[in-house]
Amino acid sequence: MNFLGLWTRGMTSRPNRRGMDSVAINNSADAGRTGTGSVQYQLRQYAESTLGKASLHEAVLLPEGESLDEWIACHIVDFYNHVNMLFMSVSHHCTDETCPKMCAGESYVYFWRDGVTYKEPTPVPANKYVRLLMKWIDSQLDDTRLFPVDLGQPFPANFRPEIASQILKRMLRVYAHLYWHHYPQICQVGLATMLNTSFTHFTLFVTKYKLVSDTELQAVKDVIKILA
User: Fold this and answer.
1) What is the pLDDT of residues 112-141, one digit of tens each?
2) pLDDT digit string, tens, across residues 11-69
3) Which of 113, 118, 199, 227 is the most buried (most CB within 10 A)?
4) Could you tell me the CA-to-CA distances from 183 to 72, 89, 199 in Å, in that order?
């Protein structure tokens, strides 16, 4: 299974993103660009061949001569797809009644804030948090000021420390909720290997490029140790 997607610019396009209904979203920026000669296509081939060696440690390494911002954007799109699919596979177990708050155990509770509809940190059920998060990430990915698609257009100066880090921090919370509250259901639907592989890839990536703080990772520190 391909655990690396591609955020593409120029001749190719980012991979299709899957919304909360598991239907691929095709945006105008995604359509009609499938060239196989571009740098971005080669990035994807490089990533796939590396993963074929069963080395996630190698898979997170930036290919020589490539843009780190581009590499991070590639992974954000792919992790977005992973988290969407994993959560949807057990979403019927994550209801307002079973998960009335977004948390990872009792020690880690997460509030939602987007600065628009939710201007202050607001407690919401876990399933609503995830849906709001995926919609928010989707809007971030569609904003070409944050994720430029034109060849030669630079990423914003705050892409790594603010934009990418915020997205990945919030994605981590979904992984944490799945491990703490839905791992038995993940096993029942046969996705434990995918969850563990995706999460290991995620943690290796965000720690390699210092995109998520150690404080945020505390909620899943035991899982990280087990999977190491």
Assistant:
1) 999 999 999 999 999 999 999 999 999 999
2) 223 444 444 443 332 333 333 223 454 444 544 454 454 444 458 888 899 988 889 99
3) 199
4) 27, 11, 13
pLDDT at 216 exceeding the cut of 70: yes
Task: Write out the two tokens for 109.
Answer: 């509770």
The answer on pLDDT for 228 being more than 80 is yes
For residues 74 and 5, is the Cβ–Cβ distance under 8 A? yes
Residue 124: half-sphere exposure toward Cβ, Cα within 13 Å: 17
- List 109's β-bridge partners, or say none: 103
Report whether 178 contacts 135 (CB < 8 A).
no
Token pair belonging to 153: 């257009």
Q: Please state, in angstroms and rounded to a whole number, the distance separating the CA atoms of residues 193 and 88.
A: 16
* Three-state helix/strand/coil letters over the chain: CCCCCCCCCCCECCCCEECCCCCEECCHHHCCCECCCCHHHHHHHHHHHHHCCCCHHHHCCCCCCCCHHHHHHHHHHHHHHHHHHHHHHHHHHCCCCCCCCEEECCCEEECECCCCCCCCCECCCHHHHHHHHHHHHHHHHHCCCCCCCCCCCCCCCCHHHHHHHHHHHHHHHHHHHHHHHCHHHHHHCCCHHHHHHHHHHHHHHHHHCCCCCHHHHHHHHHHHHHHC
- Over residues 136-152, the pLDDT tens digits come to 999 999 999 999 988 77
Instruction: Please identify which residue in the block is written with the tokens 């991979």.
Output: 15
